[in-house]
Structure formats: structure tokens, C-alpha cells
Design a protein that fits this description.
2 domains, 4-stranded parallel sheet, Rossmann fold, alpha/beta, about 15% strand, TIM Barrel, 6-stranded mixed sheet, about 525 residues, 20 helices
Length: about 525
């Protein structure tokens, strides 16, 4: 069905009493007549998806075109329908997935299986929508999902979308010709029409050209009381495990004037503003920004802070803005291991910041650590324990009501980073180290939240996976560890190769056809520097 025909179908009334739409502000409802209909799919729940500022940005961007109607779709156990008009995916001309987490791959497959659209791109014809994907996971390594998609967008949506929409607006009655045209566009990887030349990641040069903030406001999400505003993209610190530091640069900031303009709009809807970015505290005018936002009467929440530099002024403005919890990410307990991973902070930096936090009357602190990092020993785990206890002692001296919690996640090697060649720690080692943390910290009244070790290994397999992973994903009968293992066995895939083996730096990587803008030589050099510490 061509998209001109879709526009003639009867639109189902969207605002049902039991729909999340009834509690939304800012929903974009368009008539389908004469417009290109695109389903924007976030392969997880509405509650999680509507906390993702990227979904807001793409929804707003696509609907800014007068000849496009974009509707949202989220994963659920019910029939998968668009939120705005309750249409099935087969009614759309194009289906655009935004994928930011490897374990959502299972939902991607189940959404396609339940949609009436062939799972594999090669089995579709002119009657089917084009199926497109983008997002952090796709940019880093699209290969495990590549057989399911007609094309994949490598990089940020803003510089890619205009050219893609121009091609799609010509109609999709001839799928092959459309895909051939899409394959020629910068940042577009069309697996069936790939020329063999690496696809170069695209990024927006001037963030002020794009107002990225909450488009739809709803109480039905974790961040429902906040109006979200993007502050910056990228990161300048170069941690060796981090995809953002290595493959989403250069760092770019929204200007102070742009952020204040967005805040003025946001305060019409919410009393608190959520400032979003990989390292919000790195904005060159962050103290002035926070002070002026407070002067506008705004409550504040910051998505990310770097331990050093983090000034008393920033913390003071945050405390005055109503912040009650500070989240920091030391990542490792020992100075040696922080040097290995490229985390350019010392224990003194961490304890100094915690002291500043306590002095501002902020009583709750969260710390993020990884276990299973390259060259990690039991001593590194003991130093997580001693560092955490030291932080709690400082908080406790500041007065009653203090609370420290730590989040622990296994290290997962990511494509496009210096650690992409390295294996994960096995289950026995990770379990033993997690037990050490619990025994050392729980009696001290420090709450520990940990990621599933088994599911982290699945994530690792997908993060370093190739097209063979698609067969496993397609063959899973249920989303469970048992279902994963059964599908792995059925496909006779050596999953240990992806999870537990160290790869030769000279070997061909599954994602060689993607150019993230960071040279192999640079990544090898950083890996070698890490391994001699």
C-alpha cells in the first residue's frame, strides 16, 4: 500500500479514556490526508520511552514537516498500535525505530513479528512499509539487527532526516529504487544495497539550530514532574570504556540564550527543569545558567555531573534549586583502575566533592561503579568498599538523614571504544566480587543495586555481535535467559567468542562498515596505554 492510499483510510478516534493520551500535554494529532505517515517506535514501555528525550526530539522533528504525520508506538503485550490514531504498523509508509539499549533488541523482533510485516528485510515487497532504525546502539554496531532493517541511520537524526524524508516523500511504490536512493545518502546504511564503503557517522554541528526539550508532557513516566532540556552532546574526557566519549564527539553545547529561552517555555508547564546531557556540569556557563534558572523560579535536576571539576558554586545553585540527591560515577574504587579506564579523577577529588555535597545540606548520594573491568583484582573491589564507607562517613558527619546507595554494573565492551577488543569477566568472578561488595557495604547501611550478571553477558554478546546474532534473535521463542540459551544452541553459535574472548586488534570487526570518526590506530593506542598501567 502506498502512503497516498493510507491517508484515505478511516482514522480511529485517538483520545480514549484509558489511553495515556488523555493525560498528555503537547500531543501532535494530524490528519493523514496527503501526508507521509511514519511510526516512531521505542521498543520498550511508554513509561520508559517517554523519559527518553531523544524520542521527544525526533517526534517534534518529524512532525515539523507539514507533509509528514509521525505517531508514537511503544512495546506492550497488547496489539502494537500507534498511540495517536490506534493504527497498526502495516498502515504506515515507514517505521522508524529508536534503539538505545541492546536488551531492547528482543522487543524489536517481537514488534515486527506481531505487526504482520516480514521480519527479514529481504522478504518484504512494495506492499510493506520501509523499516528504519537509528539510535546509539545502531550507530555503534548495527550488525546484529541489520538483516531486519531496510536501512539504518548512523549518527544523529537532525542531519540525516531531511534527505531521508525527501526520498520517502517521492512515494514508496517501488521499494528497490527508494532503497537505492537512500543508500546513497550520508549516514544511511542500507544492508541490501551497501556499496562496501564505510558509512560515516553524521552529527549536528550547531545545537542551537534545534530546540531539544520535552515535546509531550505526561505524569505517566519516571520524569513526569520535569520539563527536560538538552544542554549538550558528546564528552571531552575520553574514558576508554565509554561510547559517548569515543564515538559521539565532538562535544557541543546549547548556548546560554538558547537554554534560557527553552526554560522560559518549560516553566509554563512544570516547576522543575531537568537538564540533560552526558556531562551537564561541563557546560562553560553552567553556574550562570543555574543561577539564572533559579532566578526564574525554577526547581532543578541535572542528569549527570562529573566529579572533577565540580565547583561549590554549582552545588550551591543545585541545592537552592531543590536538588536533594547527587549522583556521581567514580566507576572504579582504586586509583590504578581509574587510570586504566581513563577516568581522570582521584580519590581526593571524590571525597572533596562529597564534602561539598554534605556542606550544602544534600543528604542523599548515589555512586556508580563497574565490576569486571580490564585488569581488575580483588584489591580494586576492596577499595570500592573503603571509598564508599569514606563517603558515607562524610555524609553522616553532615547531619541526620544521610543516605548512600551504590549502583553496580558489569563492564560491557562497546564497539567504537578502546576496550572493544576485550572480553567480559565470567559469571563466577563477577558473582564473587558482587558478594564481596554486599558483605562489605550492607552492614554499613549502604544500599546496593546491581545489574543482572547473566543479562549483562547477553548485552555483551549483542554489543559485539555480527549478523549471525540476527538468527538467534529471530529464533527466540520467549524473552528469557532460557529462551536465549535455547536459541543459541539451536543456531549452534559460539556465544563465548563474543562475550569472553579477547580479540586480536588486527582482526576484522563486525562493524568495520561503520566510520564513527575515530581511527583504529587511536583506539589501539589507547588500549595499549591502558594495559601497561
Amino acid at each position: 500500500m502506498g502512503w497516498g492510499e493510507v491517508g484515505k483510510t478511516r482514522q480511529v478516534k485517538a483520545r480514549r479514556r484509558d489511553s495515556p493520551l488523555s493525560r498528555e500535554q503537547g500531543t501532535i494529532i494530524k490528519d493523514w490526508g496527503g501526508r507521509l505517515p511514519i511510526a516512531l517506535v521505542y521498543p520498550n514501555s511508554y513509561y520508559i520511552g517517554m523519559s527518553n528525550l531523544g524520542i521527544h526530539a525526533i517526534y517534534k522533528l518529524l512532525n515539523s514537516y507539514s507533509d509528514v504525520v509521525c505517531e508514537r508506538v511503544f512495546w506492550s503485550d497488547k496489539p502494537v498500535l500507534s498511540l495517536e490514531s490506534r493504527r497498526p504498523l502495516v498502515d504506515f509508509a515507514a517505521i522508524a525505530f529508536s534503539i538505545s539499549y541492546e536488551l531492547d533488541y528482543f522487543n524489536v523482533v517481537n514488534i515486527l513479528k506481531g505487526s504482520g510485516i516480514p521480519l527479514y528485510a529481504g522478504e518484504r515487497n512494495d506492499r510493506h512499509p520501509l523499516v528504519i532504525a537509528g539510535g546509539a546502539c545502531i550507530t555503534a554496531n548495527p550488525m546484529p539487527l541489520a538483516p531486519f532493517f531496510d536501512c539504518l541511520c548512523i549518527g544523529e537524526a537532525e542531519p540525516i532526516a531531511p534527505a531521508v524524508l525527501s526520498v520517502l516523500s517521492q512515494g514508496i511504490d517501488n521499494r528497490n529504487s527508494v532503497l537505492e536512493e537512500l543508500a546513497k545518502l550520508p549516514g544511511v546504511y542500507a544492508p541490501q544495497y551497501h556499496s562496501g564503503t564505510a558509512v560515516t557517522r553524521q552529527w549536528a554541528q550547531n545545537l542551537d539550530d534545534f530546540m531539544v526539550s520535552s515535546t509531550v508532557l505526561t505524569p505517566d513516566t519516571e520524569l513526569g514532574k520535569l520539563y527536560l532540556i538538552e544542554v549538550e552532546r558528546g564528552c571531552r574526557w575520553g574514558c576508554r570504556f565509554c561510547l559517548v566519549s569515543n564515538a559521539f564527539c565532538p562535544i557541543r553545547y546549547h548556548s546560554l540564550e538558547n537554554l534560557l529561552e527553552q526554560a522560559k517555555l518549560g516553566l509554563k508547564y512544570r516547576k522543575r527543569l531537568g537538564l540533560v546531557g552526558p556531562v551537564v556540569s561541563d557546560h562553560p556557563q553552567i553556574e550562570e545558567l543555574l543561577s539564572r534558572l533559579r532566578g526564574m523560579g525554577a526547581g532543578l535536576s541535572l542528569s549527570s555531573l562529573r566529579v572533577s571539576p565540580l565547583s561549590t558554586g554549582i552545588l550551591n545553585e543545585m541545592a537552592k534549586g531543590g536538588v536533594r540527591t547527587i549522583t556521581l560515577a567514580p566507576e572504579a574504587g582504586s586509583q590504578r583502575l581509574r587510570q586504566v579506564i581513563g577516568k581522570k579523577i582521584s580519590e581526593d577529588d571524590i571525597l572533596t566533592v562529597v564534602t561539598k555535597v554534605a556542606e550544602q545540606g544534600i543528604r542523599q548520594l548515589k555512586l556508580y561503579f563497574m565490576i569486571g573491568l580490564p585488569s581488575e583484582t580483588d584489591d580494586d573491589i576492596e577499595q570500592i568498599i573503603s571509598l564508599s564507607i569514606g563517603c558515607k562517613d562524610i555524609l553522616d558527619k553532615g547531619g541526620v538523614g544521610s543516605r548512600l546507595s551504590i549502583n553496580v554494573a558489569p563492564f560491557v565492551p562497546k564497539a567504537g571504544t578502546p576496550f572493544q577488543w576485550l572480553p567480559m569477566a565470567d559469571r563466577a568472578a563477577l558473582n564473587r566480587r558482587l558478594t564481596m561488595l554486599k558483605k562489605g557495604l550492607s552492614p554499613q547501611g549502604i544500599k546496593i543495586k546491581s545489574e543482572s550478571i547473566a543479562w549483562s553477558h547477553v548485552q555483551g554478546a549483542l554489543a559485539r555481535g555480527d549478523m549471525k546474532m540476527a538468527e538467534v534473535l529471530a529464533g527466540m521463542e520467549e524473552v528469557s535467559l532460557a529462551g536465549w540459551r535455547k536459541a543459541i544452541e539451536k543456531c549452534r553459535l559460539d556465544v563465548n567468542h563474543y562475550v569472553f574472548e579477547k580479540w586480536d586488534v588486527n582482526c576484522d570487526l563486525p562493524w568495520e562498515n561503520i566510520d564513527l570518526g575515530v581511527s583504529r590506530e587511536h583506539l589501539i593506542r589507547e588500549l595499549n596505554r591502558a594495559m601497561v598501567i
